Amino acid sequence: MKKIFFPLCLVAAVAFVQSCKMKNTASAVIGDADSKVYVAPGKYDEYYNFVSGGFNGQVSVYGLPSGRLLKLIPVFAVFPENGYGYSEETKAMLNTTNGQIPWDDQHHLDLSQTNGEQDGRWLFANANNTPRIARIDLKTFKTVEILQIPNSAGNHSSPFITENTEYVVAGTRFSVPLGTEDVPISSFKQNFHSTASFISVDKSSGNMSIAFQIVLPGMNLDLSHGGKGPSHDWFFFSSYNTEQAYTLLEVNASQKDKDYIVAVNWKKAEEYAKAGKGKKVAADYAHNIYDESKQTATSVIEHEVLLLDPKDCPDMVYMIPCPKSPHGCDLDPSGEYIVGSGKLAALIPVFSFSKMIKAIGSKQFEGDFQGIPIIKYEAALYGEVQKPGLGPLHTEFDDKGNAYTSMFLSSEVVKWSLKDLKVLDRAPTYYSVGHLMIPGGDTRKPGGKYLVAYNKITKDRFLPTGPELAQSAQLYDISGDKMQLLLDYPTIGEPHYAQACLASLIKDQQVKYYDINKNGNEFVTMGEKKTNVVRKGNRVDVYMTAIRSHLVPDNIEGVFVGDDIYFHVTNLEQDWDIPHGFAIKNNPNAELLVMPGETVTLKFTPQKQGIYPFYCTDFCSALHQEMSGYLRVSPKGSNTPLKFGTGDIADASTQK
Amino acid sequence: MKTLTKPGRISIVIVMLFLATLWLFPLWRIDLRAPQYPGGLSMQIWLNDIKGDVPIINGLNHYIGMQEINKKDFREFIFLPAAILLFILFGFLVLLLKKKIYYYIWSALFIGIACFSFYDFYMWEYNYGHHLNPHAPIRVPGMSYQPPLLGYKKLLNFEVLSQPDIAGWFFIGTGILLVSMTIYEWKKNKK
What we know:
Oligomer: heterodimer
CATH superfamily of the largest domain in chain A: YVTN repeat-like/Quinoprotein amine dehydrogenase
Radius of gyration of chain B: 20 Å
Helix content of chain A: under 10%
Largest sheet of chain A: 10 strands, mixed
CATH topology of chain B: Butyryl-CoA Dehydrogenase, subunit A, domain 3
Largest interface: A-B, 10 and 6 residues
Number of domains of chain A: 2
CATH architecture of the largest domain in chain A: 7 Propeller
CATH architecture of chain B: Up-down Bundle
Largest sheet of chain B: 5 strands, antiparallel
Shape of chain B: elongated
Strand content of chain B: 15-25%
Distance between the termini of chain B: 14 Å
CATH topology of the largest domain in chain A: Methylamine Dehydrogenase, Chain H
Helix content of chain B: 40-55%
Number of domains of chain B: 1
Number of strands of chain A: 45
Structural class of chain B: alpha+beta
Radius of gyration of chain A: 29 Å
Number of helices of chain B: 5
């Protein structure tokens, strides 16, 4: 018996060891999380949360703290669901110098500000792939302007704004040669440049225009943020690939210990531009504006931009060394601290704006980067957050003097104090957080209640849906000393940066419907008596009205194969939430959603003879299913007379 | 002929002021509520106009074949203001002549106008709710849609509440004041 006792103990010990498991991730929720995110039926969320759509090219709107999806705003991608990019009125929005581009990669958002606080007027969005900036009107949640950025590629450090929305910026991630010269890729150092574009925003209309572009050395500008308060006149961009690699960047752009924070004095740049220090160069770019009164977008190709070269403009641009390939470049609410999040660094450097100004004054430089002075690291440094975690990407701030940095590699949010740079708390994210967001967390007046982590990897967080998964987000309560995980929810597209504002800021300014009497669309039909079908050559304009529950005209004849038919559908309703839809069989085009008081146009060029039913696609009323009609398309060259109407019943005896 | 008392004369001025509110505020309001109209719909009847969500109500009513409400279809919007205006002018006359008998006639005139107005309003509501287009998409056998003159009624998916609005209360107040002052004058007469 004793002989067997020892081996048995050994077996038991081994069995015990095998039963040890890695900690699992399902059990992180503690306390009263459920009641904190429960928004009872009929109640509203406290915040509007605008979330970039990444590769879906759209902006999604969530409510916080519930995490409920409220809307998808089409911005840089066509949206067949409501006809954005398909209707004649909106096609021009996606126009570029290379024609209509139906998609883009939408990364970052910024809400317009006045005195460093959100003012609820506009939301700016960037397109990374084909450099563009969009402006969304927060009264209608519609994209009302898109401006293309020339002399740039990879419009990543964008669309961040100055404190009074004087400018929205666009920075180059993929340096390219300026102009249209054909050069070898290997001539990167000589010929490739990044640019920092400053786009002025008209105070009342919001209309954008490129004021000037600052020409910088070839490198990758990653993210940026404008100064606040004392640093109001400055803009800060993070950079990587200051190695100036043009191939295998993952190795070749990760060699130097430090890249730079690029500090731009935009007030000075403004003066230089005014003083004629810039150079006007030819550059084509599209400027698309949706005119609310005409309900129609127009696209204009501009032909010139003003370039500012730091060589001709001293004291305009400085470099601050920052370890290592920094991503986030974030200013604290006071405007004094600049946090560079070096994604490959093991610490987070915090720079001091006042020290930077002193260093510039006393010329504490350590050389230059292609002519731009480099400030000594220590001369601008306020301090370093030691051992914060792995892969710091982005930092936002609360109202209590704390900073929160996302850690991509160690999958966590790290809370630290701006005062002594000590780490205060850590909370795991699921998984690999990219950006994080605190409502107003990049303004002078941040909130102190919620933080959302936008993760890059989802894996097992939700019911599996095949190989392609939704993205995952986590909501945290940050009101206490410890961060508390409240909610896990899927997001669509691939969220990068996001913004949130108190619902009360914009809730009551929402347009409920358009006043039909102010409808300035060229093709409006003011009432059923004005409905018409007009032929000009092979163009047929159908002036159609929609009201519960009929379309006028709903019988159209005398149209031929190959005609270009334009259905101008006017929704005559004047009540909230009574849209009508419009679609026609075999149309290789999308549908329309027409809001009350609005006119939208759908083009259809029938290729074959036949009877084509059309109908309202938005369940509008008890008689929605009856809201339909027929288009008769006769063979080309036939003599079917033009005839249209609603409610006319032919005498049966005359029919063959 | 007996002379009007001082309170009697003051009441004439008050009545004229009360009736002036008819040009400033609506007389009557009809509120409608249905699940898909969380904010409710409302229609205000003025001395010479009908305001509020009339186009929306018209849009809904076409399903059940009710006529459209149009301001120009109401002759009342012409003769009612005229009648009230004349009544006010008579008030000045009563005030000048200071005779009880004219006060009694004046009060009776008001009661006449008021009774006719309510009768007319009721009849309009009756016609509006009963004369339905026989080709209406929705026909509920035996159903009519006459809104209540005063109070609450359920009509299909809508709850309807009809009640006086600000000027309506002044109008009612006028009636009460005139009747009670007539009694007051009558009693003073006997002493």
